[in-house]
Amino acid sequence: MKIGEFAKEVGVAPSTLRYYEDIGLLADVPRIDQRRWYPASYIPILRFIQLAKQTGFTLDEIRDMLQLFDGNNLPADSEWQPVVKQKLQEIEAVIVQYQKIKATLQEMLDCDLEGFTLDTIWEDECESFDM
């Protein structure tokens, strides 16, 4: 498929495809008459890249994961599961961080700030702010 057709098929911009090729996410794409020609076998690779991005993996991490594949065969569990477990731990840490931010924001909403100054806000009702 031509780059425009392929981009539409997988739901990304043609520039994204060129970028993925430039950074090594996609192997060199065959060319016909100096134009990229994407074989259908690239569709699962792009679907994997999209899923990995949606689940929080960086492009560098995705490139590393793609190197675990043997052609179209999935890597062994012992190869991919540690990578996914590490990402899960990172995501859980971010969730904890955002829960703390949410609690602080809620405290700010619950705090009656009328009559306080920046010097006195931490002394009374708003002393529980975790800053």
Provide the descriptors you would attach to this structure in a database record:
131 residues; elongated; mainly alpha; Multidrug-efflux Transporter Regulator, Chain: A, Domain 2
Write the SSE topology:
Layout: H1 3-10, H2 14-22, E1 31-32, E2 35-36, H3 43-54, H4 59-66, H5 77-110
Antiparallel strand pairs: 1-2
Using the coordinates shown, work out and report the CATH topology of the largest domain. Answer: Multidrug-efflux Transporter Regulator, Chain: A, Domain 2
The level of helicity is: 40-55%
DSSP E strands, number:
2
CATH architecture of the largest domain: Orthogonal Bundle
Rounded to an integer in angstroms, the radius of gyration calculated over CA atoms is 24 Å
Reading the helices and strands in chain order gives HHEEHHH
The portion of residues forming beta strands comes to: under 5%
Q: What assembly state would you assign to the polypeptide chains in this entry? A: single chain
